[in-house]
Amino acid sequence: xxxxxxxxxxxxxxxxxxxxxxxxxxxxxxxxxxxxxxxxxxxxxxxxxxxxxxxxxxxxxxxxxxxxxxxxxxxxxxxxxxxxxxxxxxxxxxxxxxxxxxxxxxxxxxxxxxxxxxxxxxxxxxxxxxxxxxxxxxxxxxxxxxxxxxxxxxxxxxxxxxxxxxxxxxxxxxxxxxxxxxxxxxxxxxxxxxxxxxxxxxxxxxxxxxxxxxxxxxxxxxxxxxxxxxxxxxxxxxxxxxxxxxxxxxxxxxxxxxxxxxxxxxxxxxxxxxxxxxxxxxxxxxxxxxxxxxxxxxxxxxxxxxxxxxxxxxxxxxxxxxxxxxxxxxxxxxxxxxxxxxxxxxxxxxxxxxxxxxxxxxxxxxxxxxxxxxxxxxxxxxxxxxxxxxxxxxxxxxxxxxxxxxxxxxxxxxxxxxxxxxxxxxxxxxxxxxxxxxxxxxxxxxxxxxxxxxxxxxxxxxxxxxxxxxxxxxxxxxxxxxxxxxxxxxxxxxxxxxxxxxxxxxxxxxxxxxxxxxxxxxxxxxxxxxxxxxxxxxxxxxxxxxxxxxxxxxxxxxxxxxxxxxxxxxxxxxxxxxxxxxxxxxxxxxxxxxxxxxxxxxxxxxxxxxxxxxxxxxxxxxxxxxxxxxxxxxxxxxxxxxxxxxxxxxxxxxxxxxxxxxx
Length: 663
Prior knowledge:
It contains 18 helices and 27 strands. By secondary structure, the protein is α/β, with parallel strands linked by helices. The chain has five domains: 4-105, PriA, 3(prime) DNA-binding domain (GIY-YIG endonuclease), CATH 3.40.1440; 132-314, Rossmann fold (3-Layer(aba) Sandwich), CATH 3.40.50.300; 317-365 and 428-561, Rossmann fold (3-Layer(aba) Sandwich); 370-424, no CATH class; 572-658, CATH 3.30.70.600.
């Protein structure tokens, strides 16, 4: 019997601890099992990563017990956690613990579900006969599956071209070989139709994860996967860690989505983790999108990924026509300064007269997005953040969308005591209110994080919309992707340039992606479709090429700008953020760190130190240093030893984010 075990914990300590195995443990120690260990003066859960017959330290303490009868981690997942540790500035234990549901982290071996998850109502479906383009794409994927080799496919398919059917038929091939697979979606609660389509094809072989599920339900789904009852896993980024025994395919749908990046430790990108897990498993991975990320498309252009394309909509339906409305002209020619343009109003009127449906998109919730004093220019900001307070009319409150601070609306300016306050800007509540005034007979519902906070609210509204009990949905990005409604013939984008004003090199890419994806919700049936995009900058290339559904022209302009400025995909970025409740402390610490980096990494390519775009967040002042490097592995190897032992100063916290999605 094994006498000693090497154990890791979830603490941010990059080392293992050795424990002796007492004779009275119930289960034998094995790699991948959990153990209870004495750690300092407490009892902790640890994970076995190595077995030893000799002590590595003098008189190792005995472990308390072995929790599991069977290992909860495969060797493949333990290796994957090691890769995450080496690439994303975290400990091995932090990476490993990110892979399991909450109850397992606390040493539980079973859970009862008090509230049953609502069963998904699905009608079984058969595979569609692929068209010529789909058949060519599937032939390439099936060949790779038959040869049991790892390859990264970038599936660039325009909206409505049948990417989901490709995923389904590729997964069917995998199941026929006795293997299993994972499909990642940006957020399950936002893409219920994707789940339905997988469940309708594969029935109870499908396991589903999403953020609104109870911990007990997540635990039970995890166990179904572990026991081999579920062989197809559909979920957001954490689903990539599903305990599948023999994975044969990984799919990342809408691969450029920022939600695939974990914001807390470990700060991994699920797309890149999927590629690494597929490499370890010797399996293919499909990255799919109508608007691939610049990084992925550049890799496809350079031959690192296998590019497969769908250029036609199913049944060769036309892409919807896009009208750009120059809001500068609208404001010059119309009195009343309404949020919804005359063009959008006219198209909606015709749409409603034909008993058809519409989606109106705006990436801001609330009624007014800031409170302005016309006398002195004061803008009401959150006391804890550098963010304007947003007025929510239904709650009659000013709310901070970053830290949820709430206060009553103000009538007197706190700066000059004037009463010239204006509630400016446009949020989803304001658009909904205005549309209800223009079309009092229309059935209108709003979908944003304010109205969709309750469990099941999202599905409820979409079911009403499917049954045509609603005519118009006004919403944020939760209506932008993955929805397929035959009667939606009109899509409106209220403020297309909202993202263009953000201090981020990805702002153009995000604007292009959002308009393209939202526009793709229209005209998915024989009824055709029309898209109205309201903008103050119709000449901007991101908006111009999105209106023409022209990804290649957008990519060409954007990639040239990135090359000149030396941003991804031509470099890898590391963002080092220091934060403190005292502004002086964080500035001093960041300046000292910048000097240290210059000294320890000769020729370092560095931006900063600079304040974060939102300098104050949840009461903390934040400063950044951005470091550029050739590739992720080299960059991490240079920064890790350079910052080791750096003394941050009192009350200062530091975080290192590799491949950050925000500046």
